[in-house]
Amino acid sequence: MANKAKKIIIRPARKSDGKNISSFLRSFPKEQVLQNYFPDYKTSFVAVDLKGRVIGHCGLDISKTGLAELRSLAVAKEYRRLGIASKLVTKCVKLARRKKMWEVFAVTGAEKFLKTQGFRNLPKHMVFLFKDIN
Asked: What is the pTM of this model?
């Protein structure tokens, strides 16, 4: 497993990665990657193997209000538990700081993992509500 981790490169996404990122994220069940669109490559990071294959992704949607949403966090099953997701999240949080965001949030099914990365639930008297308008 350690050898596999040494063969992974975490880097900013490039415009030329677009089709590979899209294909990678669409390979996950809709219950795991919920959105129909993905963050801009300029605010995304990828994990690639030595052949250049995308095996992980995480991006940010950055708003003008100082909020950034962590989006499309995914790692290929065979590369999980190697610290790749942690590195991708760290890169996104650092980018949010550089962009002067005051908060990063995530809508996720990976609550336990994100709590290990410093994320927390809203206070009990607050809720996050959604309305599907499509």
From this structure: 0.86
